[in-house]
Amino acid sequence: MPDRSWLSSLPASILTAALLLSSCSSSPIQGSTEEEFTTQDTHVAIYAGNRGNIDALTSKGYLFTVGDDGRGKVIPVDPVSGGRIYWMPQGLYVPTYTHEVFINDYFLQSTDRGFDSNFQVNRSASPAGSSAFYSALGTEAVTVIDSQGQIVAQSKNEGLFQQGVQCGEEFLGIANTEYNSHLLAQAAELSDGSSTIGYDFLARLHPHTGTTPDLLAATPEDRSVRIGHWEPECSGRTVIAPVIKLTYPEASRDNGLDPHAGTFALQTWNADSGERAILPLTYDDGSVIEVSKDEDYSTASFLDGSTYTFAVNTGRVLSVDIHTGLILRDFTISLSNPHDLNSAFHITKNHAYALVAPEDRAQTPTLTRYDLATGLKEETIELPGLRAYLTGNWLTGPLSVESIAIRPSYDEQFASEAATNK
User: Fold this and answer.
1) Quick check: 298 and 230 in contact, CB under 8 A?
2) DSSP 199
3) Is the dihedral of CA 315, 316, 319, 321 positive or negative?
4) What is the spatial distance between Cα 25 and Cα 34, in angstroms, rounded to a whole number?
5) 252 pairs with which residues across the strands?
6) Does residue 28 surpass a pLDDT of 60?
7) How confident is the model at residue 340 (pLDDT cuts 50, 70, 90)?
8) Which residues contact 36 (CB under 8 A, 6 or more apart)?
9) Could you tell me the sign of the dihedral formed by the alpha carbons of 18, 21, 22, 23, in that order?
C-alpha cells in the first residue's frame, strides 16, 4: 500500500477545508485524493508552496495538474522551498518535505526519502529516471528515483554546494572552499596550492562512499565571478551554467562601488580534463549584457546540442553557444512585475513557457507558450482556479509558484504542427 504520511501529516482541518473549497462543480480546479490523483487528461503541472515564506505560521503546498482549457485537479503536499517538478515520458516526479512522489496516468506512488528537507537545490533526468538534489542539516543529498518512482540510490555530502546536475551515471557539483573548509586540503592538492583565499572545485556528489564527495578538479577561487542560483546542464562530463562576471569584485561599503554590477558569462567545467572556462556572453558585435542585482536567478534551462537556453527570473530568455559564448537568441517574456519572483518558467527544445502569478491576487494567473526561434507568443491559458490557493490565508500567507512542468508529448505536438504548417 502506498505510504501516505506525506499527505496525512498536514493539519486535518486545513486539508479538509482546502478540498471542500475546490470541490464545487463551478471551480475549474477540483480537489482530489491520493487514491484518485493521476496525470490523465492533463498537460501542465504546477507546484506551489509557502516553505520559503518566513512569516507563515504553518507550511502549505499544492500540486496542480491542468489541461489546455485551464481545468484540472489539485492535491495538497507538504512543500519544499525551491521544489522542482520534472515531467518525463514515464511520469511526473514531485518532491515533498519527506517523500518522493511519482505520478503517471494510472497511479500515484509515494516513497519515504529517509530524511526531511526544507530546500531542493535541483532536479535532473538520470539513467534510472530522475535525480533530486536536496539541502538538509549541513549536508546536501542526491536521491535517484527510477521510472516507477522507487528510490534506487542515495549519496550524502557534507557541506554546501551551489550547483549540481546529473551527468550520465554521475551527479556533479560546483562549489568552493569558502563554504566547505573541510575540503580545503583536497582542493589545494588538485590545484597548484598557491591560493591564499581558497579554491573553487568540481566534485562528484554521487556515487561515492561516506559523506565526503570526490573532488575532480580545483582552481584558485575566482572572486570576480558570482555563481548565483542557476539551473546547470551537462554535456558529456562538462557542467554548464551561467554566472555573473562582476564589474567591481573589490566593491565594499567603504569604497562605494556597486557590488551587483556585472555582465552575463557562461561557466563550463570539464571533469575529464579538469579545464574550467568563463566565457563572456556577447552579441555578434562584441557587446555584452549588463545585469542588475535582480538578475541572478533561474529555475529553467535546456541544452540542445551546443545551444544552452535559460530563462532569467525577470523574464529574459537567452540562447547561447556553449563553446563561444555567442548570444544566438534574446527575448523577454512579459511579466506583470519583472521584479516579482512569483513567476516560473519551463524551457524545451522549441518553446519557453511562463507561469505568471501576479502579485495582485485579484488578477488571473496565466500560462503562456513562446516560440524559442522567434520569441513570439503562441498561446495563453488562463488559470483562474489557482487564484484562491495562491492567495492563502492568515495562517499560511501567500503561496509562491516554485516550478512548472509540461508533459513532453504535449510540447512535442506543437513543434510537429509548426513543422507541418511550414
Assistant:
1) yes
2) E
3) negative
4) 20
5) none
6) yes
7) low
8) none
9) positive
CA 210, 213, 214, 219 torsion-angle sign: negative
Residue among 115, 116, 49, 45 nearest 79 (CA): 49
- Which 3 state secondary structure label does DSSP give 172? strand
Q: Are the CB atoms for 329 and 318 separated by under 8 Å?
A: yes
The helix or strand, by DSSP H or E, that contains position 415, with its residue range, turns out to be: helix 408-421
User: Quick check: 249 and 197 in contact, CB under 8 A?
Assistant: no
- pTM attached to this predicted model: 0.92
Integer Cα distance of 84 and 300 in angstroms: 10
Q: Position 361: which residue type?
A: R
Q: For 369, left (φ over 0), alpha (ψ -120 to 50), or beta?
A: beta
A 10 A CB-CB count for 414 gives 16
* 8 Å CB contact between 81 and 402: yes
Contact between 267 and 275 under an 8 Å Cβ cutoff? The reply is no
| % residues pLDDT > 70 (the chain) | 91
What does R_g of the chain's alpha carbons equal in angstroms? 21
Per-residue pLDDT of 261-275, as tens digits, reads 999 999 999 999 999
Amino acid occupying residue 194: S
Residue-wise pLDDT tens digits, 93-138: 999 999 999 999 999 999 999 999 999 999 999 999 999 999 988 8
Q: In which residue are the cell numbers 516513497 written?
A: 111
Give the CA distances from residue 174 to residues 47, 213, 298, in Å, rounded to whole numbers and listed in that order. Answer: 26, 11, 16
Phi, psi of 165 (to 5 degrees): -155, 150
Non-local (6+) Cβ contacts of 141 within 8 A are 115, 117, 133, 134, 154, 155, 156, 157
Read off the pLDDT of residues 299-312 as tens digits, 9 standing for 90 and up.
899 999 999 999 99
Residue type at 20? L
Location of C-alpha cell 556533479: 172
Helix, strand and coil percent figures for the chain, each rounded to 5? 10, 45, 45
**H helix or E strand, kind and range, residue 311:** strand 307-311
Sole residue written with cell 518553446 = 351
